[in-house]
Amino acid sequence: MVLKNKNSSEISPTNKEKIYSAIKEKILSGKLQGGHQIRAAEVAKNYGVSGTPVREALIQLEGEGYVIYEPYKGAIVKSISKKEVQEIFKIRAVLECMAMETALKRMTSEEFREAMALAEKGLNESDPAMLSTINWDFHSYIYQKADMPNLLGLINSIRAPMMRYVRIYHQTVDLKEHNHKHLEIVKAGMDGEPEKAAAILKKNLEKACEKIELFLAD
Fold first, then answer.
1. Where do the HTH gntR-type domain residues begin and end (predicted)?
2. I need a surface site. Which of 110, 163, 175, 193 has the fewest CB within 10 A?
3. pTM (2 d.p.)
């Protein structure tokens, strides 16, 4: 598959960011499947740039777990196994529940109101791509309130390879029920029950893992 930009002449000086975003979006949307070879020379040609920003974009994508480098092939979209999914979600449950509990114990009334507004934002959203963004905005906002930057860094690094499958999960789940879970999380925090909020989060992660496993089994 060739990555094209119809307005390649209009690419801003931040070529690396443009190419990075384009390739990442194609991976997340499923247009580039696991095992697909990304030919750097073709990408550079179609964007009208040198190979340097393409290589830089691919290095960033590799660091985030979206691509791997194979001998004689170059950059390959990373595939993921059922076993890896199980492992990643177990790790996510530990890290994210820790961040959730810690944050909810520290948050102010104003911060809870902001979290509730973010939770409500997703109630009427039906687009899986937008919902994935809103979903992470909600979780990220709360996790940041834990004031544990190293923990947040670990969460970001472990969730990146799963994002393409999270979109699939949002296509199969009851969106209304899913979004209401965010409201329950915030309410539990406001009621002084961070452990209850973490339990809701853990159950949501387990459900997502099961759905993604079914997709991979197909």
1. 13-80
2. 110
3. 0.75
